[in-house]
Amino acid sequence: MLTKVHHVTYIVESIEDMADYMEKNFGMKPTRTDEITDRGYKSIMYHIGETMVDFFEPTRDDTAMAHQLKEQGPCVAHVAWGVDGIDQVFDDLKGKGNDMRGAAPTFSPFGYRTLSIEPGSSHGIYFQLAEGDVTG
Fold first, then answer.
1. pTM of the model
2. Tens of pLDDT along 35-55?
3. Nearest-CA neighbor of 44 among 60, 59, 32?
4. CB contact at 8 A, 114 and 126
5. DSSP string of 2-15, one letter each residue
6. Yes or no: is domain 2-131 CATH 3.10.180.10?
């Protein structure tokens, strides 16, 4: 069912500082920069082989991401695992007794589709599964 690490998302205090660090230390420039105002964050994205790595900077204090940054400092927000046939995967996981976030897979602001298993169903671990590539 799981095909790869689709993406890894970090929460940081400054995407500009992180972009400078990534360029200085690894010679990498972001492949994409966005501001997702309705969700309250800015992001930079890198492609490393098949895996995307993105860094999110909260732009509002009222988001779960901002609370996580305040409580834990810079950290991994989540790892998303790649799947094929995300609609069927959603139904299969729900049928196995998992509490799913939402009624169906959704589109990320970056164009790929995701589903999330509520941590109460998965021993406290937040699982996100994703299908597709970044678009736009």
1. 0.90
2. 999 999 999 999 999 999 999
3. 32
4. no
5. EEEEEEEEEE-S-H
6. yes
